[in-house]
Amino acid sequence: xxxxxxTPRVFSGIQPSGGLTLGNYLGAIKRFVDMQGPDFxxxxxxxxxxxxxxxxxxxxxxxxxxxxxxxxxxxxxxPAKSILINQSQVPEHAQLGWVFNCVAxxxxxxxxxxxxxxxxxxAQNASLGLFGYPALMAADILVYHAxxxxxxxxxxxxxxxxxxxxxxxxxxxxxxxxPMTEPVIEGAATRVMSLRDGTKxxxxxxPSDASRINMTDDADAIARKIRKAKTDPDALPxxxxxxxxxxxxxxxxxxxxxxxxxxxxxxxxEVGGKQFGAFKPMLAELAVAKLGPISAEMARLMDEPDExxxxxxxxxxxxxxxxxPILRKTYDIVGMVAPV
Length: 340
Ligand code: AQP
Hints:
Blueprint: E1 9-14, H1 22-35, E2 41-46, H2 48-51, H3 58-75, E3 82-86, H4 92-101, H5 106-110, H6 113-119, H7 128-142, E4 148-150, H8 156-173, E5 182-184, H9 219-228, H10 247-259, H11 264-271, H12 276-302, H13 305-334
Parallel strand pairs: 1-2, 2-3, 4-5
Helix pairs in contact: 3-12, 4-7, 4-13, 7-8, 9-12, 10-11, 10-12
Bound molecules: adenosine-5'-tetraphosphate (AQP).
Residues 14-15, 17-18, 21, 23-24, 27-28, 151-152, 154-155, 190-192, 201-205 line the site of adenosine-5'-tetraphosphate.
């Protein structure tokens, strides 16, 4: 079989399941912005169908979807350069998701650690959607034939599943139709941890607001949360090796490195030997300087929700020019009679 060449295309998404966190920004959005340019077509998505795998108040879901879109744009994603959509406006995501439900195997899905983490002890009461989420995520990516997906470290397993689904589909139907998508997990902050517990991921659904920096936090809130962030009593090391077994120290250094576009070694060369009492104000100042303009622009954009809705509608029309033919071709391969 001749090898298909795929257009270099980036797809990634974020759930509008709450306010954006610094983890979403550094692990995902900042890197979405970096990939926007001549090398790739870029498609960025508010994955509202994923958000409802756990209960969402409908009014909050609308607000959070618009706020997420505002966060994307305020961070530097340009709707003229990237396609910006909310998932439910592009029906081919869910349609391909169904095909992939029939390709993915129960055993594969049962190994997904995020389901186990999110369903917790009450898995019998979790929604079927939460269990099937990674198959829909594979469809989100592959309905664009996306070749690259920038994500945080926590999504690695779902990206491997995406490749497994693509490979099984191609194998079962004897085609070379879906690409083997490359995860792009790079930078100093692929896993930003909770400010209260350096072994737990910073998450928008953590019950403790002090555990995270929200993109909408004001300067006082950012400074207070960093001041109160859990640390240890030792001074900062001068080399990365000295951060081993110091999860909270490592987390704050990683955040500083990602916000200042430096490597961890560069940061430690500057701050090694300092106590947290001296380092935390430096980090707070940097975080406020970087996030302040973004949250101000988000607030301005949120004053014009109609404009955000127009951007999402225009994005979905552009997206469907890509997704409709790929879905149709998938249906043809599978054996679905086409309209005449
Ligand atoms: N703490 C994090 N560090 C680095 N990257 C992160 N991401 C999320 N948290 C961190 C990345 O952000 C993208 C979108 O994630 P999501 O919101 O769709 O889902 P999530 O990973 O489940 O994020 P949360 O904040 O933990 O959401 P809830 O609390 O609703 O479950 C992904 O690329 C993710 O890697």
